[in-house]
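Archive maintenance. Older records in this collection stored only the sequence; we are now back-filling the structure field for every entry so that each record is complete. The fields below show one back-filled record exactly as it appears after the update. Entries are processed alphabetically, and Esterase is next in the queue.

ARCHIVE ENTRY
Title: Esterase
Organism field: Streptomyces polychromogenes
Length field: 377
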Amino acid sequence: MGFPREPGAQHPGGPHRRRTPGMPGPAGGRRPVRPGRALHRSESLTVHRQLSRSRAVLTGAALALAVSLAGCGSPEKAKKTPAPAAAPSAAQSAPAERKVQMPTGPAPAMTKVRDTAAGPVFMTRLAGPKSGVTGQVWVWLPPEYNDPKYARTGFPVLTLYAGGQSNGYNTWAGGQLPVQEEDARLVKEGKAHPFIMIMPVQNFTADEKNALDCSDIPGQPKMGTWMAQDIPDWVRANFRTLKGRDGWGVMGASTGGFCSAKLALQHPDVYKAAVPIDGYFVPDSLLWRGHSAEKAANDPDQLVTQGKADVRVLVTAGGADPYEKGVVKGWVAKAVPPVSVEYYEQPGGKHLTSDFKKMIPDVLQWLTRNLAGPAAD
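Back-filled structure field:
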């Protein structure tokens, strides 16, 4: 499938003042004449000769000075005031804006849980300081991340949410959806960014009717805060990423599609792009009962109409599922700018993991066109 390439956007000190110190002028004075006795004639002649000789010396000096001035011109022309040094331009004096968010450490404790053809998948338990929630997070680093050539390079981040309850598992971290292998292959072909992939859990029980809906439901674990604040904070503190939101995307299938749409619309300061694959858009957990206002604030079906989120969304539906097509197309029709929504209908597609798998190469390339790639300072 083809999706149009969208342009990105990129984005200073003041002149130095130079103080010229003043120069003190020369000081001078005349000695006073002391009153004394009357001079004799001989003494008067001597004094007269001395005065005449002094006048001659002074006259000669005056003539020499006049000749000198005539040769050099007037003092104003002779002394040229040097032009002040040019003030440095903003481009010269402003430091370059840094692109990379370097980790502050210490390195997280992670356990390898699976090997893939594109490198290992790790798992850690993240205790969120803002949410108070502790849950499993799986991590995959692209091969380039540990290459010494990229030691000062920041990488884009893709957070992936699973279908179903995702209680103690995330299908993107297993072998059913080989997103890591596909990304590594596309990177070699020059078609995709090497993404850091983050794959969190979404629930802590298998009770589908009482799911946490990737939200802060009153009286329940603050899953929305854990996902949209604690996890990004943890990733920035522990891995080389890109500053700002331009290198951050979120994607999910089915229930994960609901989560990815909701989180991107609620947090456009964190995510620039989202891909809900065959998702739904209305929160349906029974835990929302008695909390209609909070439910509405976490409803992607309403969030997309508010015209607040400047995010890019690719939403998909299976072509062989009429109900799903109706749900997705209805949601697309409600979108109000600045949110930008593209629709893709998978020919013959059904709501199956095997069909989600077929879309992985295309969605990774769409994310690559809509997110910033690796960068170094």
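Update note: The longest helix spans residues 41-72. The first strand starts at residue 100 and ends at 101.
Entry marked complete.
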